[in-house]
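If your schedule permits, I should be very grateful for your opinion on a structural question. Kindly check, if you would, that the fold set down in the tokens agrees with what the sequence suggests. Thank you for your consideration; the sequence and its tokens are set out here:
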Amino acid sequence: MTTDSGEQRGRASPAARAVRDLDPACFAFVMATGIVSTGMSLLGPSWLSLALLAAACAGLAVLGAAFAARLVLFRANLAADLRAPDRAFGFFTITAALDVLGLRFALARHPLATAILAAPAALAWLLLTYGVPASLMLARTRDSVLADVDGSWLLWIVATESLSIAAATVVPVWPGQAGLLAPVAASLWCVGLVLYLMVATLILLRWFTIPVRPEAVGPSNWILMGATAITVLAGANLLGLTANLPVVRATSGFVSGFTFTLWAFGSWWIPLLVIIGLWHIRRHWPPTYELALWSIVFPLGMYGVATLTFGKAANLRFMAPLARFVFWVAVAAWVLVAVAFVRSATKPARAAKAAKANV
């Protein structure tokens, strides 16, 4: 039986192997491309924003189809990922990708698309936000998972805050539901805030108590900053709601102060993450494409969008030029990662062509 199964795996087509081995965090491409498109819609040029939006939508369609195929054909592999501490939190990119695209559509004045995307995003978040921690607590195979804690765990916070943004975004469109949507948005913002404090503490605890290997400080740790950035954006959206809502009156002071605190802390992370990243590259030279590189693009893009939005909401004028600078860094990072992806995807074909030429 085992031999036959192994032979079947060996005979699997490249497409089947790609679906079987699909990384749970694959939707990070949609997140990164969607937020860069959002920033371009705010700063221009609009044609580039639309091109990136098309790329993000295409990526969502392709990856969604691949994920559905994996769910049907390779449930055992998917279940194994849900039990793996270093991979399980990658599934939260599903929620975040849908909500980031929803934000972009809202800026294009298509709030119905935002609401449609938020519905499956909320369902996925609800299943994962209880299923993943429960799996790691009740079904783990060893005493501690602390050695597996990394930046990917913060995708839990990113997904939570993305739902807060989605809820706040549709409040002006459906004012009759503001009494429900505004408290949901504020509650999710608070939940994400507390989760960030917990998970960031676990990551620092790992760094300072367990010998740090180069792979432990990879690109996914940029989500330490990305999670603060999306929380800042969610806070700015809450501050933008009408002041006569009871939940806004009850939380505006706290949200405003803590949002600035998170913005400052996220800014503090950037130089440290650059230093850690340079150390990682030095140990992995020459650098090669990996999915986690999109985890650098997304935080940079989100930091730019969040800084610009919060600066306007809080009337902090110094944030606008900073946001523009960081956002163009995010655009450059997107281009570099996209080029690396294309080179990686076409490498087998180029190698085969070179081998044929040598013959």
